[in-house]
Specification:
This protein has 118 residues and is mostly helical. The chain has one domain (7-107). 37% of the residues lie in helices and 3% in strands. It contains 6 helices and 2 strands. Strands 1-2 form a two-stranded antiparallel ribbon. It starts with a strand and ends in an 11-residue tail after the last helix.
Protein backbone atom coordinates (compact mmCIF):
# COMPACT_ATOMS: atom_id res chain seq x y z
CA UNK A 1 0.00 0.00 0.00
CA UNK A 2 1.06 3.55 -0.55
CA UNK A 3 0.45 7.10 0.56
CA UNK A 4 0.50 8.06 -3.13
CA UNK A 5 -2.57 10.02 -4.24
CA UNK A 6 -5.30 7.90 -5.84
CA UNK A 7 -8.00 10.26 -7.00
CA UNK A 8 -9.22 12.31 -4.07
CA UNK A 9 -7.68 9.93 -1.50
CA UNK A 10 -4.48 7.87 -1.11
CA UNK A 11 -3.85 4.39 -2.46
CA UNK A 12 -3.61 2.94 1.05
CA UNK A 13 -6.88 4.55 2.14
CA UNK A 14 -8.63 3.20 -0.96
CA UNK A 15 -7.27 -0.30 -0.27
CA UNK A 16 -8.48 -0.23 3.35
CA UNK A 17 -11.93 1.22 2.71
CA UNK A 18 -12.75 -0.08 -0.76
CA UNK A 19 -12.97 3.44 -2.15
CA UNK A 20 -16.07 5.53 -2.65
CA UNK A 21 -18.03 2.94 -4.65
CA UNK A 22 -18.14 0.56 -1.68
CA UNK A 23 -20.19 2.83 0.55
CA UNK A 24 -21.88 5.71 -1.27
CA UNK A 25 -25.66 6.01 -1.33
CA UNK A 26 -27.37 2.61 -1.77
CA UNK A 27 -24.01 0.83 -1.49
CA UNK A 28 -24.18 1.38 2.28
CA UNK A 29 -25.41 -2.11 3.03
CA UNK A 30 -24.35 -5.08 5.15
CA UNK A 31 -22.97 -7.06 2.18
CA UNK A 32 -20.55 -4.28 1.20
CA UNK A 33 -19.70 -3.68 4.86
CA UNK A 34 -18.73 -7.34 5.30
CA UNK A 35 -16.48 -7.25 2.24
CA UNK A 36 -14.52 -4.11 3.21
CA UNK A 37 -11.49 -4.20 5.49
CA UNK A 38 -12.85 -1.03 7.09
CA UNK A 39 -16.64 -0.71 6.69
CA UNK A 40 -18.15 2.78 6.56
CA UNK A 41 -21.53 4.46 6.37
CA UNK A 42 -22.32 6.22 3.10
CA UNK A 43 -22.03 9.72 1.82
CA UNK A 44 -25.68 10.62 2.22
CA UNK A 45 -27.28 11.92 5.37
CA UNK A 46 -30.40 9.99 6.41
CA UNK A 47 -30.88 8.51 9.84
CA UNK A 48 -29.03 5.21 9.76
CA UNK A 49 -30.13 1.94 11.23
CA UNK A 50 -27.09 -0.11 12.10
CA UNK A 51 -27.34 -3.69 10.92
CA UNK A 52 -27.64 -6.28 13.68
CA UNK A 53 -24.52 -8.28 14.48
CA UNK A 54 -21.75 -5.69 14.52
CA UNK A 55 -21.27 -5.37 10.76
CA UNK A 56 -20.07 -1.76 10.95
CA UNK A 57 -17.41 -0.05 13.03
CA UNK A 58 -14.41 -1.76 14.54
CA UNK A 59 -16.54 -4.73 15.63
CA UNK A 60 -17.39 -5.44 12.00
CA UNK A 61 -13.99 -4.61 10.57
CA UNK A 62 -12.16 -7.40 8.75
CA UNK A 63 -8.95 -5.43 9.40
CA UNK A 64 -9.47 -5.64 13.17
CA UNK A 65 -10.24 -9.37 12.93
CA UNK A 66 -7.07 -9.91 10.91
CA UNK A 67 -5.04 -8.08 13.55
CA UNK A 68 -6.72 -10.05 16.34
CA UNK A 69 -5.71 -13.28 14.57
CA UNK A 70 -2.09 -12.11 14.25
CA UNK A 71 -2.08 -11.63 10.46
CA UNK A 72 1.55 -12.12 9.29
CA UNK A 73 2.65 -11.82 12.93
CA UNK A 74 1.54 -8.19 13.21
CA UNK A 75 0.83 -7.13 16.79
CA UNK A 76 -0.13 -3.54 17.48
CA UNK A 77 0.69 -1.93 20.82
CA UNK A 78 -2.53 -1.31 22.81
CA UNK A 79 -2.47 2.46 22.20
CA UNK A 80 -2.13 2.00 18.42
CA UNK A 81 -4.89 -0.61 18.39
CA UNK A 82 -7.17 1.74 20.31
CA UNK A 83 -6.40 4.63 17.90
CA UNK A 84 -7.17 2.41 14.90
CA UNK A 85 -10.41 1.22 16.49
CA UNK A 86 -11.51 4.80 17.24
CA UNK A 87 -10.69 5.88 13.67
CA UNK A 88 -12.80 3.03 12.29
CA UNK A 89 -15.65 3.77 14.74
CA UNK A 90 -15.53 7.44 13.64
CA UNK A 91 -16.37 6.25 10.09
CA UNK A 92 -12.74 6.09 8.87
CA UNK A 93 -12.55 9.68 7.65
CA UNK A 94 -9.71 10.56 5.31
CA UNK A 95 -9.68 14.33 5.53
CA UNK A 96 -9.47 16.26 8.76
CA UNK A 97 -11.07 19.34 7.19
CA UNK A 98 -13.79 20.44 4.78
CA UNK A 99 -11.58 23.23 3.35
CA UNK A 100 -10.58 22.19 -0.22
CA UNK A 101 -7.18 23.93 0.00
CA UNK A 102 -6.38 22.16 3.28
CA UNK A 103 -7.57 18.85 1.78
CA UNK A 104 -5.07 19.28 -1.07
CA UNK A 105 -2.30 19.92 1.45
CA UNK A 106 -3.28 16.80 3.38
CA UNK A 107 -3.45 14.71 0.19
CA UNK A 108 0.09 15.91 -0.62
CA UNK A 109 1.22 14.50 2.75
CA UNK A 110 1.43 17.79 4.60
CA UNK A 111 0.23 18.07 8.18
CA UNK A 112 -2.77 20.32 8.64
CA UNK A 113 -3.96 22.03 11.81
CA UNK A 114 -7.05 20.84 13.64
CA UNK A 115 -10.18 22.83 12.80
CA UNK A 116 -10.66 25.95 14.90
CA UNK A 117 -14.19 24.93 15.86
CA UNK A 118 -14.92 21.48 17.23
Amino acid sequence: MSASPAGPFSASYMALTGGTASFYFDATNPDNARSALVPRFGGWNPVYTTAVGGVYGSRGSRLMRMLDEGHHGVRLPPDDRERLSIWIDANALFYGTYDPAEQQRQLAGELIAMPELQ
